[in-house]
Amino acid sequence: MMNKLNAELAHFKAQSHNFKILTLTNLIYSIVLPVIDIFVAAYVMRSSNDPVKVVVYQLTIYTGIPLTFLINGWLLNHFPIKVLYSLGMVLSGISMMIMMSLKTLDITGIGIAGIVMGMSFGFYWANRDFLALATTNDDNRNYYYGLETFFYTIIAVIIPVLIGWFIELWASSGDAKLAYIMVTGIVFLVTIAASVMCFKGEFINPTNKKFIYFKFHPYWYRLMFLAVLKGLVQGFLVTAPAMLIMLLLGKEGALGTAQSVGAVFAAVLMYIIGRNTTPEHRIYVFGTGLVLFTIAALINGILFNATGVILFMLFLLLAKPLLDLAYFPIQFSVIDILTKKEKRSEFAYILNHEAGLYVGRLTGAGTFLILAYYFSNEIALRYAIIIVAVLQLSSFWVAKGIIKKGKIMNVELELENSSLTKTITPNHSIL
């Protein structure tokens, strides 16, 4: 066993300096992600007992993200990328501070906190995606995302349990808000630590200064369709678990425990998959994630009780990392091809990709709001997830087509480069 662990450690050490720094930065920041993703929504739910306010909070986050992607593109011409990346991490703590400072959770206050959190995600993901793209290649991206997912999932075992029961114990003494404030302070300190690690990297800004384009190669629109389908589910994955557990289980301790069920198994599985799979296996990993998410949605819709929520979380712990492990390398392989084909900056595609996600998120969250408004919150929580899960199943065939077309375009690029090389090589037979 020790020999195996030493071999895996040696494999990690063999990666580039920036690869290791980026992984460690994301590892530190991942400590706060369960807090941002789950407990902020739980705080809104506890304070207002209104799932609609939770969705409004999420919509303002999703509105802030693409706007910040756009701002980030302009700022990259003036500031080092690690400054903007660090800013995104620190802003998440500031957003939580704004939320905790609100005396009453009205729509305006929730909206402001949501916009700031959206800006945090925008700076974080825009620069994280570019750095991951620049630091990895198609051969080691499965390993990179498998390693990240392993750490994220292990942390998802520890943090939700610790914070969930910490909040619940303080709540039993009658001061739950103080517990949330203390957690917010810890989050802010962790974001500072992640920023310090980030500055140890030798990261380079995108070289091409133009980021905004309105016309792309037809191949890109296939990925944009896939992004819309991914965004459909993202509209629920951040807040739906917290809303379901707060409604059907009722306490943050149960929330943390449910988040941790099966997470150790999932973490080890993701690392093994990332370490041992190749680009050829991505479509199968992706398809498995889609099926597991659909099963999770059906279980929740059919049972809609405490058992259903725990099973939903269990399947989600497997489905979400499988989808991400396959999706990001597929996305980056498309960007790799088109940056060579269209001679554009990688960030131009990252920026445009966010627009596709935003359309999907609005559609997914809008589905919830419509069902909640015309029927009830229970109907929305029970059936909206099933609707988007079934729709997302079509992602399998979209992704399969993208991978197949990518192989063809790679061959075409190799032939073009070969022809260009022959054209510019002097003919030494002519004197």
UniProtKB/TrEMBL annotation:
Q: Which residues form a coiled coil?
A: none
- The regions listed as transmembrane in this protein's record are 21-44, 56-76, 83-101, 107-126, 147-167, 179-199, 220-248, 254-274, 283-303, 309-334, 355-375, 381-399
Q: Does the keyword Transmembrane helix apply?
A: yes
InterPro entries xrefs: MFS_trans_sf
| UniProt keyword annotations, A-Z | Membrane, Transmembrane, Transmembrane helix
Does the entry feature the keyword Transmembrane, yes or no? yes
Provide the protein name. MFS transporter
